[in-house]
Amino acid sequence: MNDKIVAPSVGEGENVTAGFRDAHPSPAQSVTISDVAEAAGVSRQTVSNVLNAPDRVRAETRERVTRAIADLGYHPNHMARSLRASSPRMIGCRILPVHAETVAAIQDRFLHALAEAGQECGHHVLLFTAADAAAESEWCTVLWRTGAVSGVVLYDITPDDPRPERLTAAGVPFTAFGRTAADTERYSWADVDNAAGTASAVDHLVAAGHRRIGFLGWPEGSSVGDARAHGWLMAMDRHGLLAGSHRLDIRGDDTTTSGTRLMKELLDRPGPPTAVVAATDTLAVGALHTVRDRGLEPGRDVAVVGFDDSPAAAALGLSSVRQPIEEVGRLVMAEVLRLTDRTLGPNGEPPAEPLHRLLAPELVVRASSAPPQGLIPAGVEARSLSR
């Protein structure tokens, strides 16, 4: 998938000279379709339907929109509408830089799934970069208002992420992979049950006979990292192992170097763990380096389980929790396309409720955590390294 640079086109009702500088037009500028939608208490699509397909809108709604158009003095920019109609159908998504010391490629897999799902519906993914969440919100708003994209997808959501609120306020159709800590009912999202993933890893290790199970995680403040840490915590507590494991929870950056260092710290402590659950395959690969450097055998002497089921996990015989990324991509694309057409149903019913979907991950057991032959726990599938 190639990065593309899109020059600003003329947004509907916006000044050409505003360009990317004015993602939020001031009252001094021409009245936009968004202004009409806000005044009438409807979506942009409903205003567009009143102008172009009034028979699709209920009479009372049509009258309210028409009154708002007259009160505000709105005049559709026909040239911009023509440009918009002739532009490709695109869904925007910010692409994040990849750290040099990561073995996972979750965003790559997600973008691939997103692109495949969009292509089946005649849409494509427009990738762009942004310095931070604020810049991303501005770019999303500008790309949508200028007609470059039909909607956008948000990735890597944090607990207090400002992007959902900002895009909702701007009227930009979007769906998120992940969710914030609060107000999740106000926008569409699909997410993986990260807590259930690490909990399943703990259950597997307990069933294999382990009682001192450590956790290699990220510093607090990440939705994904915090959820995975919570899963380890809850599972250890459920098995009655938490009291003796409070010093086995250790955090660091998501790099292989960090995983190597954290594992050394754990193995050097009194009462070291016989098994560890890592928040990512990247940390788990670093942990494997330490285990092998000390002449220990993963699975026999110290069990290691990662998260993400990366290609590296399969190559190294690393047990890992697999995310249903392909299904997430399909769900997110289907939802953002639904949101780009917020019209009333054939019988005048309102649009469907936002998507709120939490998907279960799957534990893939390999040699790094498999118990001795003949002692594989019931109900756990031990998969070969040649997957």
TrEMBL record:
Residues 31-85 form the HTH lacI-type domain. Transmembrane segments: none annotated. Keywords: DNA-binding, Transcription, Transcription regulation. It comes from the Bacteria. InterPro entries: HTH_LacI (IPR000843), LacI/GalR-like_sensor (IPR046335), Lambda_DNA-bd_dom_sf (IPR010982), Peripla_BP_I (IPR028082). One of its GO terms (molecular function) is DNA-binding transcription factor activity. Coiled coil: none annotated. PANTHER family: HTH-TYPE TRANSCRIPTIONAL REGULATOR GALS (PTHR30146:SF109), LACI-RELATED TRANSCRIPTIONAL REPRESSOR (PTHR30146). This is Alanine racemase. It comes from Streptomyces brasiliensis. The lineage of its organism: Bacteria, Bacillati, Actinomycetota, Actinomycetes, Kitasatosporales.
